[in-house]
Amino acid sequence: MSTTVKSAVDQARSDAQALHKKLEDNKTHDQAAIRASLENVHSEAKKLVLSLRPVVEAMYADDRRLVTDAITSLETLAHSTKDLAAASNEELKVKNQAAIDRLRIAMQKLSRAVAAQRKAISKN
Amino acid sequence: MDNYIAIIFDDDAKASTGLHELWALDNNGDITVHGAAVIHRDKNGYIEVATKRTDPGVRTAVGIGVGALLGALAGPIGVAAGVAGAANVAVGAAAGVGAATGGAIGLSADAVKASEHEEALYESGFVVKAGQAAVLAEVSEDWTTTVDNAMHKLGGKVYRRPKSDVRTDAFFGDDGYGYYLYPYDYEPYYIY
């Protein structure tokens, strides 16, 4: 199978990968940059959740579970990256690592869901 | 089918190209790459994991997982050696010793001995020889020919083991070794 048209889940996975790169790059950035980046992550994570919610109902049970788990991780990520105004430099670093770990979980679920979708398409 | 794969190349540059090609296959929808990393084995036999240039802090953690994955790819005998090699990384990191002795980066190459005698012990025949590099990845693929053909064109040789087989002899959590691989394409960077 070869297709350049990405499904919503596939696109969400690509967006999550880009977000993950930014968070990892934060390790070399200063406090202000990390804060700005995490605030951006908060809004990006919410966008990802909104993009995934509509597609869940149309999915088969196993795939639905994967995407639902990804949504849960992304919601936690969004929640953990809000209200950063009072966070210290050390707190920001901890939050950044926690965000990486949380996003990694979401990406693993999305990656599995993408693989399942591609397999289903190739069978048809 | 979910597989762990190792693609051996003769040098770092080809391995880097192989990594990018693997992700290109993913982007094209031909396979799904869940994670990948690049390693090389130096003239002294030590293996170094190539991380992102901005991500040196994860070398030891990645090394532990990748060390075990190398062993897992080699087969049941390799698993024990791989985990032992991984343990060496952790000890080396704690002691703060240099790469020449296993070190805070890279790891003992016990899992992938190059001699013919030891090669015979590993059921898959997977060996990274001194000077060679390899792309390690976890992929979902419907046909093995997709990756095999693409990597063959680049001069790579592909080894694979089903994830379901590897899981039975691994002790690295529910997601196996995938956690230690980069979940996206990156530019491999070696310190040494």
Describe this structure in words.
By secondary structure, chain A is mainly α. Chain A has a single domain, classed as Four Helix Bundle (Hemerythrin (Met), subunit A), CATH 1.20.120. Chain A has four helices and no strands. The longest helix of chain A is centred in the C-terminal third of the chain and has 35 residues. In chain B, 38% of the residues lie in helices and 19% in strands. In chain B, β2 and β3 form a beta hairpin. In chain B, α1 runs antiparallel to α5 and α2 packs antiparallel against α3. Chain B has 192 residues and is α+β, with helices and mostly antiparallel strands. About 24% of the residues of chain B have low confidence.
The termini of chain A sit apart by: 10 Å
Structural class of chain A: mainly alpha
Order of helices and strands of chain B: EHEEHHHEHEH
User: How would you write the strand order of the largest sheet of chain B?
Assistant: 3-2-4-1-5
Helix content estimate of chain B: 25-40%
Structure summary, number of beta strands of chain A: 0
Low-confidence parts of chain A: none
So what's the overall shape of chain B? globular
- Percent helix range of chain A: over 70%
Question: Number of helical segments of chain B?
Answer: 6
CATH architecture of chain A: Up-down Bundle
Count up the helices of chain A. Answer: 4
The span between the termini of chain B is 36 Å
Mean pLDDT over the full residue set of chain A:
87
The oligomeric state of the chains shown is: heterodimer
**The CATH class of chain A:** Mainly Alpha
Mean pLDDT of chain B: 71
Q: What would the CATH topology of chain A be?
A: Four Helix Bundle (Hemerythrin (Met), subunit A)
Shape summary of chain A: elongated
